[in-house]
Sequence to fold (226 residues):
Amino acid sequence: MKSIFATAIFLFAIAGIVSGQQAISPANRIELFNGTNFDNFIFCMRDGAEPMKTWSITNGLIHCNGSGIGYFRTKESYSNYVVTVVWRFVKMAPKKDNTGVLVHIQPPDKIWPMCVQNQGKSGHQGDFFVMSGAECKEHLGQDANTPIPLHGSPNENSIGEWNTNQTMCIANTVFATINGRPLNTITECTISSGFIGIQSEGADFEVKRISLNRIEAGSSHPLLAH
Fold:
């Protein structure tokens, strides 16, 4: 019997993530980051820290220096989508290698909110964390700080090179793919919609794209039939 993960790999391969690549083409993409400012986002920083001491934008790139703990998130809530984040580590140091893509963020904003995290930690991109009371089938009975580990070896590029982190959310299932390789799947999540965010947790990194492609409810896309 094929595992859920093996089935997901097969379906990713034949579907090109969504509808034969059509849904992730530039013509069908919503740019959450406009390349200029943070107008589309809301910040939540530990102890009310000033966000701009941690986050900045220069030459169309978001820079996080990792000095403050927190996140920024979309103003709009989403469900059924693929979110693509293109980012890279600027430099690396012990305990300075951690970030993450947060999906299904639930109010209220706090450190940390209920959500699902597609891990951005160096060497672990593609791990999943279900945070602050969120749960999924693959995590039941485990400690809250225990991740659902990626399947197989990491697929990250070298420090300083760009990585493409994609998180696909369909109903109560979430998929992670890193640089085109499907690495993880969680099912029966207790949350299925919410805000989308990027985490600051020590890493010095840059982001050049945060984009979203909606997946229409009731679509005949093969992933929805499994």
The CA atoms of residues 94 and 115 lie 26 Å apart. The first helix runs from residue 4 to 15.
